[in-house]
Design brief:
CATH topology of the largest domain in chain A: Rossmann fold
Number of strands of chain B: 0
Structural class of chain B: mainly alpha
Strand order of the largest sheet of chain A: 6-7-8-3-9-10
Largest sheet of chain B: none
Strand content of chain A: 15-25%
Radius of gyration of chain A: 23 Å
Order of helices and strands of chain A: HEEEHEEHEHHHEHEHEEHEHEEHEHH
Number of strands of chain A: 14
Shape of chain A: elongated
CATH architecture of the largest domain in chain A: 3-Layer(aba) Sandwich
Shape of chain B: globular
Oligomer: heterodimer
Distance between the termini of chain B: 31 Å
Largest interface: A-B, 63 and 44 residues
Largest sheet of chain A: 6 strands, mixed
Structural class of chain A: alpha/beta
Strand content of chain B: under 5%
Helix content of chain B: over 70%
Radius of gyration of chain B: 21 Å
Order of helices and strands of chain B: HHHHHHHHHHH
Number of domains of chain B: 1
Helix content of chain A: 25-40%
């Protein structure tokens, strides 16, 4: 928590390069008995593409609600461009564009009318608004469909209109909640490409929540959340490097015994996760030959891979990102 | 952490984007959206006609023999009450859009905009008010058939009364719909409170003939002042209340309901808004 003196000193300091656009300071949140956020702190820098990665129930949606001023945190502070989400919501709202997971466009209105309405909510009107609408529709490639009702649009076109809606008032920070859910691979690729253009050309800070590892890989930095806590924070490359080496996974009819045998024989750490033995080690390809020769008949299958963000997650939490039930549910939802 | 969070230049203009532009836009959207849903438009035109003819004729013939109100036909007595019922249903149910807007992300996108909550309430409530006032006017087309011939002055006062009832009930509908997450729960509340409120508003039987305790309920029921104001304007000398006091009661009712809707919408809590 900052003291008053520090706050004043900070507010007088000239804008530095390292100034945070989003600053989350020790946020707690509780729904009745359940703790959704348990002391989360991190910062997002200017013109940064930042991912908030976590499985369902990790607290990322709760944090998104607090940042977008839809809900007050139980304790702690969230600032965007220096404005407190709890104390000065309207100043903060001016600075942010928000794209929710649920569609917010009115499908009974045309693309143009949706943006016209949105502009009025931000005090834009007249010729300036018209010009801005034309500009945004051109950017999201909907200019030729400007006067068609949004209900006639494909899923990808509707999502692009959502994005145009969120960006109409030139926000400094864009918040997106699971922006690619329900989109086909082509539309996903387009969206990510557009987010990068936005970051590079307009220097917008972008925070994206996602449950997809491969999406978080495309961001500049990411925060991984689990059960209301931040378990990792950094660039995708840094997080992967901390594992140092390869990931070796062994299938065995008796993984627990095998793991303890490996530990005593090679003096290394071997964990059992989802009924498979899992080892982090450099020069994995050489290690496999040793281990297979050492325990003939006890290993059914072997795999070696470079660490992924999921491996970072496993290392920090001791369990897999998705439980099997979650995985099936997610596949059904994505289908 | 705090030493890094330098403040950004703040402008001197108010942080929100004014009252009238957002309210106008929300009103506009409510009305345009309505006219683009053909089913709703047909319902609005057809339901007053069907409702008044079927229920009114049924009641009328059943009551005819022992008609104590001294009026020509029960349909005449029932006409202002039917008008209030039509306004009640349209006003309340237009605010189902609050629940729909919340289910999709539309309402959220309004709530994260720098719009004062009073503008959100004003825009949506005026949108619903416009629709139910129009429906009331459509029902007025039948007035000549029930022996109503009003001058321009009375007609304008009828419009004002319809507007006030619509505004008050739409704001009440907004306040009820705001915390709800399902249309079913909304229907339950409407059936439990609002239909009984209408039944004891002088719509079906006059205040003067009611039992003591019932008469008291009718007198504190704000809808009674709507029914009585309309009755007095449409059939001169048939209302037991003075027009002026009825209108004052309606204005107070509308103001109170607007404040209630604003208080509901202006709360910020530690619970999710969707």
């Amino acid at each position: 928590m900052a003291s008053k003196v520090q706050e004043i000193a900070a507010s007088h300091a000239a804008a530095e390069l390292s100034v945070a656009t989003i600053s989350i300071d020790d946020i707690f949140h509780r729904y009745d008995e359940a703790i959704a956020l348990n002391g989360v702190s991190f910062e997002v820098r200017p013109a940064e593409l930042f991912a908030l990665l976590g499985p369902n129930g990790s607290g990322k949606t709760t944090l998104f609600r607090i940042l977008s001023t839809l809900m007050l945190p139980t304790a702690g502070r969230a600032l965007i461009m220096g404005h407190d989400a709890a104390k000065d919501p309207n100043s903060l709202r001016r600075q942010i564009g928000v794209v929710f997971q649920a569609p917010s466009i009115d499908v009974k209105l045309s693309a143009y009318e949706n943006l016209w309405h949105q502009g009025h909510l931000y005090g834009l009107h007249g010729a300036a608004l018209n010009q801005r609408i034309d500009e945004m529709l051109g950017r999201v490639a909907l200019a030729d469909r400007a006067h068609d009702r949004a209900e006639t649009f494909s899923g990808g076109m509707q999502r692009r209109l959502e994005l145009a809606k969120g960006l109409l008032h030139h926000p400094s920070v864009l918040l997106l909640d699971e922006p690619t859910s329900g989109l086909d691979p082509g539309a996903r690729r387009d969206l990510w490409q557009y987010l990068r253009i936005l970051r590079d050309q307009e220097r917008v800070s972008i925070l994206v929540t996602s449950h997809l590892m491969e999406e978080a890989e495309r961001c500049d930095r990411l925060a991984i959340m689990n059960q209301g806590k931040l378990v990792a924070l950094g660039t995708p490359a840094d997080l992967r490097h901390e594992i140092g080496g390869d990931i070796i996974v062994l299938d065995s009819p008796n993984p627990v015994t095998l793991a303890s045998k490996i530990e005593s024989r090679f003096a290394i750490s071997a964990k059992v996760i989802s009924r498979k033995v899992r080892i982090e080690r450099e020069n994995g390809h050489r290690f496999i030959t040793d281990v297979v020769e050492a325990f003939p008949g006890e290993i059914d299958a072997v795999s070696v891979s470079k660490p992924t963000l999921e491996d970072v997650f496993i290392r920090r939490t001791g369990h897999r990102f998705w439980t099997e039930a979650d995985q099936r549910f997610q596949e059904a939802a994505d289908a | 952490m705090a030493s890094e969070s330098t403040s950004f230049p703040t402008s001197l203009t108010p942080s929100h984007s004014g009252l009238f532009l957002p309210a106008f836009s929300l009103w506009w959207r409510e009305v345009v959206r309505f006219y683009r849903q053909k089913g709703r438009v047909i319902g609005v035109i057809a339901s007053p006609v069907v409702f008044w003819l079927v229920i009114g004729s049924g009641f009328g013939t059943s009551f005819h023999a022992g008609d104590a109100a001294g009026q020509r036909h029960y349909l005449d007595y029932f006409y202002p009450g039917a008008l209030v019922m039509i306004i009640l249903f349209t006003s309340i149910f237009t605010m189902m859009s609050v629940i729909e807007d919340r289910k999709v992300g539309f309402l959220l996108s309004v709530l994260v905009a720098p719009v004062p909550r009073s503008a959100v309430v004003l825009g949506k409530v005026l949108g619903g008010t416009t629709l139910s006032t129009i429906q009331g006017i459509i029902f007025l087309v039948f007035a000549p058939w029930v022996g109503v011939h009003v001058g321009l002055g009375s007609f304008l006062l009828v419009l004002l009364t319809i507007f006030l009832i619509s505004f008050a009930l739409t704001a009440l509908g907004f306040a009820i719909a705001w915390p709800m997450d399902s249309a079913q729960a909304f229907h339950a509340i409407v059936n439990l409170f609002l239909i009984p409120l209408w039944l004891v508003s002088g719509a079906l039987f006059p205040v003067a003939g009611a039992l003591g305790w019932l008469r008291l309920i009718m007198r504190i029921n704000p809808l009674t002042y709507g029914t009585e104001a309309l009755r007095g304007l449409l059939y001169p000398n048939s209302s037991s209340f003075a027009l002026g006091s009825s209108l004052v009661a309606l204005i107070a009712f509308a103001g109170l309901m607007f404040v209630l809707a604003f208080v509901m919408a202006n709360r910020r809590t530690t619970r999710p808004a969707a």
